[in-house]
Amino acid sequence: MTPLPPPETHNPDGALRRVGVEIEFAGLPPRDTAELVRGLFGGELVTVSPHRLRVKETRWGEFVIELDTQYAHPDAEVIDSRPRDDTEWERQRHQMRVDFHARTRELIGDVVTGLVPTEIVCPPVPWDELDELDALFDALRQHGAKGTDASLLYGFGLHLNLEAASLEVDSLLDQLRAYLLTAEWLREQIDVDITREVLPHANPFPKPYALKVLAPSYAPDLDTLIADYLADNPTRNRELDMTPLFAHLRPHYPHELFHNRLVKPRPTFHYRLPDARLSDPGWGAVVEWNRWLEVEKLAADKELLRKRSAGYVARHTRSPLARLWLRLRGWVGTP
Fold first, then answer.
1. Exposure b/e, 222-235, CB count within 10 A at least 16 = b
2. What predicted TM-score, i.e. pTM, was given to this entire model?
3. Tell me: the pLDDT tens digits for 126-146?
4. Which of 133, 150, 170, 288 is the most buried (most CB within 10 A)?
């Protein structure tokens, strides 16, 4: 499948826009997965810890392959800490503590391998090369990796980190509005797995927030856009997670999410909705990219975006009596 071009193909610096891809799956441990990645894309395999590996110096950059739980990996604060003083006893005591911590995390990883997913975090790829990255998904299938629909216990997702074409507040607002209007269609097209619907990781936006953002009079500056977002969405668990983008634009913004080490500031929309459909031979990053483009097409059509926004607000702010009347008209075919 060929990746379709977006309305805006380049980033604010004039370079081709890139897409970061993250995928979760079962059935293939991190080391085997890392060997698979190196076999496909070359590079140097580096073992960071027993359950976290990197494949460096590929054509696109660095892949990270790991068990998707922080408890399987040594804590950098512990590993990088220093002895309290320079005595021989304290140095030995400190080293024993570090070794014990690393070994404990390794044992935890050994125990949960097969229970928690393996995750691949791919380097940013130019949008027109996503079909070449899809060779990874074919290889994962062939080597027994299991996606979302392989078990009711699997709530695995594919995340796209979509580089923004513009960082101006009006453009960001258009993209957010377009997403709110397209979200229901995307859910229907993806047919989001019931397990992922139950889990909180890709929750929809609250309707009061959608009504606020889609109101014709809503014209925030960047700080207001961020404040309103965080007031109604004080979490990363949204189908379109805006916190990495906002943290990139306002790194010193006084909110705890912006200082969470799991939030990596970057100029991207963190799109969390798609399932990891590894059982489908025709599925891959290109499929989800092409679906996402419906959001960008709507954002680029200012007049249609305005009309659909106004229609959404009107439809969802009618009184119960007005909604009942419209439904009755539909039943009886009243013109």
1. beebbeebbebbee
2. 0.84
3. 999 999 999 999 999 999 999
4. 288
Residue whose token pair is 């014709």: 216
Spatial distance between the Cα atoms of 156 and 22, rounded to a whole number of angstroms: 11
Collapse the DSSP code of 1 into the 3-class scheme (helix H, G, I; strand E, B; otherwise coil) and give the result: coil
8 Å CB contact between 271 and 20: no
Query: Residues, the chain, total?
Result: 335
User: Cα separation of 78 and 152, whole Å?
Assistant: 36
Cα 263 from Cα 243, distance rounded (Å): 7
Evaluate if residue 253 carries a pLDDT over 60.
yes
Neighbours of 333 (CB within 10 A): 6
Alpha helix (H) ranges present in 191-277? 194-198, 207-214, 222-232, 243-249
Q: Which residue has the tokens 């097409």?
A: 297
Q: Give the chain's mean pLDDT.
A: 86
pLDDT single digits (tens) 316-329: 886 665 555 545 55
3-state secondary structure of 16: strand
Angle at 176 between CA 275 and CA 156, to 5 degrees: 15
Q: Which residues pair with 65 in a beta bridge?
A: 53, 120
199-230 confidence digits (pLDDT tens): 788 899 999 999 999 999 999 999 999 999 99
